[in-house]
Amino acid sequence: MSENETENETENVKDRGPRVALVTGANKGIGYEIAAGLGALGHRVGVGARDDARRETAVAKLRAAGVDAFGVPLDVTDDRSVAEAARLVERREGRLDVLVNNAGISGETGPGWVQDPTALDLDAVRAVVDTNVLGVIRVTNALLPLLRRAPAPRVVNVSSAVASLTRQADPAVEVGPVMAVYAPTKSFLNAVTVQYARHLAGTGILINAACPGLVATDFTGFQAPRTPRQGAATPIRLATLPDDGPTGGFFEDAGVVPW
Ligand SMILES: NC(=O)c1ccc[n+]([C@@H]2O[C@H](COP(=O)([O-])OP(=O)(O)OC[C@H]3O[C@@H](n4cnc5c(N)ncnc54)[C@H](OP(=O)(O)O)[C@@H]3O)[C@@H](O)[C@H]2O)c1
């Protein structure tokens, strides 16, 4: 490459401006802290959220903290909402560097967060699959054309260590209550993540699953030891991997989570 070409390349990269991220379910909890953390690292952050008031409040709070944040109306279960969100990011930014699929639900639980496999409401199971798995596929596929335009695209799927079949099958490991709806949706999500990684191998897009640990949010009724900011650490690390970083993996703060 000639010196001029190198200069032009550098100029083009500069023209691209800050890295652009979209975080789904970013109005609260771990998603909010992922948005805040990526913003603090210099990303321009799209705050994906389905409720207008909650989204606007989060965007205002992030901006007050110095984050270059913008709102993205986004219900991950709704094809039209997701398509419109992709159009908004395209019109505004022209590309996407980082997608964090964070939005997730547990579904109804009984006392002690138990979801009894012998007494499941199948419609309730479908609703959790629709958010935690189909929502991720829907959003990823809608944003993939914009990710392909970025120089170093990263996708993070926020999963959970309860998705680890290895840990669930080991009676010596403490894995919490039986969660017959939620846990399998995250195992499903992990399996989907691996298929994306295989399909996208060699494209420069790195896609990984992240467990945030047990975090005090609405999701856990705030009965958990970790803060949302601590929960955001691994997703942020995977969103900012170097080009030679892993893809198709499953990580928590301590390292690799066994499948
Ligand atoms: N907390 C934990 O201990 C823990 C552990 C392991 C994994 N996780 C995972 O971490 C992620 C974030 O959880 P969290 O603890 O931060 O929970 P949270 O405080 O309940 O936040 C969940 C977020 O997802 C959004 N969301 C849910 N359904 C959506 C939909 N259809 N479209 C768009 N957004 C939607 C929520 O929006 P609304 O405000 O509109 O409901 C909210 O912003 C989830 O994927 C969860 O499974 C959490």
From TrEMBL:
The keyword ATP-binding does not apply. Gene3D superfamilies: NAD(P)-binding Rossmann-like Domain (3.40.50.720). SUPFAM superfamilies: NAD(P)-binding Rossmann-fold domains. InterPro entries: CBR1-like, NAD(P)-bd_dom_sf, SDR_fam. Keywords: NADP, Oxidoreductase. CDD domains: carb_red_PTCR-like_SDR_c. The keyword NADP applies. Pfam families: adh_short. GO terms for molecular function: oxidoreductase activity, acting on the CH-OH group of donors, NAD or NADP as acceptor. Belongs to the short-chain dehydrogenases/reductases (SDR) family. This is Short-chain dehydrogenase. It comes from Actinacidiphila alni. The lineage of its organism: Bacteria, Bacillati, Actinomycetota, Actinomycetes, Kitasatosporales.
